[in-house]
Amino acid sequence: MNLNARLPMDVKPSASVTAAVPARGGLPERFRAARPFPGEAKAGHRLYHGSPFVMVLSLVKLVNGRRTSCRATRDINGMSDLVERGYDGFLLDQYGVLHDGRELLPDVKECLDQLQRRNIPMAIVSNSPCESPRAALRLERIGLMNEYFQSLVTSGDQAKRYLEKLISEAAPVRLSCLFISHADHVERGTWSPEELRSMGLELVASVDDCDFVLANGVQVCYKGTLSEVESDYESDASDWSVFGTVLQAAAKAQRPLIIVNPDCVVHRNNGVTVNCPGQFAKKYSALGGEHLYIFGKPNPEIFREASRHLELSGARRICHIGDSLCHDVSGAADAGFASALVSSGIHAPELQSMSLSDLCRRKGVPCPTFAMSSFRW
Length: 377
Prior knowledge:
The chain has 377 residues and is α/β, with parallel strands linked by helices. 28% of the residues lie in helices and 17% in strands. The chain has two domains: 4-35 and 156-294, Rossmann fold; 55-127 and 298-372, Rossmann fold (3-Layer(aba) Sandwich), CATH 3.40.50. The protein has twelve helices and 20 strands. Helix 7 packs across helix 8 (278-286) and helix 9 (300-308) packs across helix 10 (325-335).
């Protein structure tokens, strides 16, 4: 069965390859790749090429006045420059642009106020595993009120629709899932075991018994079963004692791995490093796993979905603001939008030692349309 051919465009995942899946419990026989990730080896199974996606959220100033731009990229001072250039609406990344997961970054509130006064529509496009209503509540807690934005679209939204379609196609057979998640799903705003069961999934504690592995966090393995095991992986990337065994077994059995949050690492302003499920994608692929499903950016559909919420009539100019070349710039380009790279975000350490054009070539992604040091007016 060609699973993706039967799904609406806005729920197709990004996947690394097309290959047959061992039939279990009514799971569709084929998972067809929607598109490779930018920079990915086309004939291989590696999700990432060159340096991994690393989210560095602390504001690191570029040294020695290094020019950040590609030859085709225009340096700008802030969002006022984009408004003067005639852009009608903006799509915004969260982490590294607006906040660091715990607090707003400098100048963000003032910039949003300036854009709101000019009635310029904005929508957030995020790789958060939270569904958008919960993600909005988390934003409110750190001072970002909903009235700034026309909508918030997350990878969690897209993954939820995909799972619902997958479950519906398998009915009346009940699909089984090995769930890797957070210890406190209430605080994180992510799915509880009860929610997944209410969707129609059975939660199991063995790769042999599962139809697929689902990861939206990195703290607890076998979530929702009597065999729950906690891991220190979120703070210690060398601790593969729990997840390494699961991913090796999943790759060997060719069980699909579904990643709801494709980010690999977050570095907060206070220096704390947080490892994320995107690391599992790299590990699974390196072990020979061929059935990898990742939701969110850079899939262009999440950008297009968010742009529709801007409610701009006619041919309007839209620019996406983000700090990741692989997630934000590449995805925006594929969706047909301009992009502005926040250079003080995840690539700040790399941009201290190389130009933006060199970094883009190294990662195999297009140059951003614009570059600015931070999200400011």
